Amino acid sequence: MSDIATISVKRLADLGAQGDIDLIDVRTPAEFREVRVATARNVPLDSLDPRAVMNACNNGAHDHLYVICRSGSRSARACEQFTKAGYTSVVSVEGGTQAWDEAGLPVVRGQKTISLERQVRIAAGFFVLLGAGLGYFVSPYFIGLSAFVGAGLMFAGITDTCGMAMVLAKMPWNQCRQEPISRDA
Fold first, then answer.
1. Residues 120 and 102 reside in one and the same domain
2. How many domains would you assign to the chain?
3. Is position 183 within any domain?
4. Per the domain annotation, does 106 fall within a domain?
5. One domain for residues 45 and 72
6. In the annotation, is 162 catalytic?
7. Which candidate in 69, 79, 162, 176 is catalytic?
8. Which of 33, 69, 100, 184 fits 75 for a cystine, CB–CB 3.0-4.6 Å?
9. What residues make up the domain containing 69?
10. Rounded distance, CA 88 to CA 168, Å?
11. Do 169 and 46 meet the contact criterion of CB atoms below 8 Å apart?
12. How far apart, in Å, are the Cα atoms of 109 and each of 37, 43, 56, 119, 175?
């Protein structure tokens, strides 16, 4: 990830004030609906197609595509996907939407939702508790459920890829109708 170009939220805001920039937000639609940079288009990381995104950009009006997420981790992974697809003019926004909001820069606020991270913790806790309860009351083999969830959490921590988050992101409550983003200033 060290080869990924980055930009601070203040610098990106300055560039945006000078003219139109291409900014995509790779968070889930529900996260995007909750709070977003006004000029961002939502392109969820789990359905990212670098070629399609680049074809939809501002016809080369600017040299770079800026990628933002909540805190910077997913945008860096998205930039890696663009780089692997042969696009090198992508830049990850340092600190993501969270840093943008904390810097007092303008955001669009919408319907509040439970973050994907909290949903993972709730689901993991439920399955561990379920496995322990079933293991105690029904059969000791159910303890394997708790072990499986624990192994999944370890894998997620080591690889920064969470299968449970990917599944939860596709749940109906994490989906919303995509609304076109106007580029008119």
1. no
2. 2
3. no
4. yes
5. yes
6. no
7. 69
8. 69
9. 5-113
10. 31
11. yes
12. 9, 18, 25, 20, 17
**Predicted TM-score (pTM) of this structure:** 0.73
As a whole number of angstroms, the distance between CA 92 and CA 65 comes to 9
Q: What are phi and psi of 146, to 5 degrees?
A: -65, -40
d(CA 20, CA 71): 23
Tens digit of each residue's pLDDT (9 = 90 or more) over 60-116: 545 899 999 999 999 999 999 999 999 999 999 999 999 999 999 999 999 888 888
CATH of the domain at 101: 3.40.250.10
Q: Which residue has the tokens 């029904």?
A: 138
Whether residues 45 and 65 fall in one domain: yes
Evaluate whether 164 touches 182 at the Cβ level (below 8 Å).
no
Give yes or no for residue 185 having a pLDDT over 50.
no
Q: Are residues 83 and 67 part of one domain?
A: yes
With a cut of 50, say whether residue 19 has pLDDT above it. yes
